[in-house]
Design brief:
Blueprint lengths: L13 H17 L1 H9 L9 H23 L6 H25 L5 H8 L2 H12 L6 H25 L2 H32 L1 H11 L1 H10 L8 H29 L1 H4 L6 H13 L5 H20 L4
Helix pairs in contact: 1-11, 1-13, 2-11, 2-13, 3-4, 3-9, 3-10, 3-11, 4-8, 4-9, 5-13, 5-14, 6-8, 7-8, 7-14, 8-9, 9-11
Length: 308
Amino acid sequence: MIKPFLLRIDGLSPYAKGMWLGLFAMMLFGLTLPMTRMATGSLLSPQLSPWFVTFGRAVVAAGLSLMLLVLMRAPLPERMHWKPLVVASLGNVIGYPLLLAIALRSVSASHAAVITALLPLVTAVVAALTFRQRATFAFWFCAALGTALVVVYSIARSMWTESAFRLEWADFLLVAAVLAASIGYVQGALLTPKLGAERVICWVTVVALPVSLPLAIVSWPSVAISASAWAGFAYVGTFSMWLALFAWYRALAVGGAIRVSQVQLLQPFFAMLFAVPLLGETLDMLTLGFCVAVVTTVYIGKRMSNPA
């Protein structure tokens, strides 16, 4: 079990510790979009290929996971656990990072932040369907409204930039990435009570290693890559795919999952803010306004969902 040093701060209640640690985790996750864009570059100035960024970061996370599993002396998962682990790995280790990396070559990190802001709400929808929970009409209405806002934003942004075909394709990839991550998260949640969050995080990355390692070798860059692109790659492999998850799960455990989980709504705003100094992006009112609208819808939808 990893015990972040932040939990040793004296004078703070468990809830306050959980909130601060959750905020720190969201800052780490917020850097994922800008760092991925930094690693892949753009269509006009490409750097690392999305394939290498995806499978390479998975190899980095798997290496760290193997070391932790050995230190923990963790036993192999039981036979019944392998199917959810494989599905979670396909969604969180391969599907989401790959679709995100490809899309970020065509759109800005701020643009992607609006689409991926739907992730908490889509995860709640997938969980409701998987666990056969009866959600309220208001919850489903918020889910439909959030999706509609993303579609309207895609159309409005396309008209704004006069490059509709490219952005429509990238938005399709981002929506598919959100769906893949949601399915992976729910499958991981099925195993968390049995294996523990830390072991689930580790095994999900290790399960993908037979696929990620050879594909990372095959997609190794054959041209010179900038130092900033390698820095972005190192970040998403070490923090986005691994350390940030431990901080987030620990925050939920210490401060209470229902209350601390609301901090997740700040992630798209962190992504937008970090994209300004790291990538030189500018925040326009169209993107910021739709982000606020989507996050508000997600917040209301989560409030209307079943706490289970």
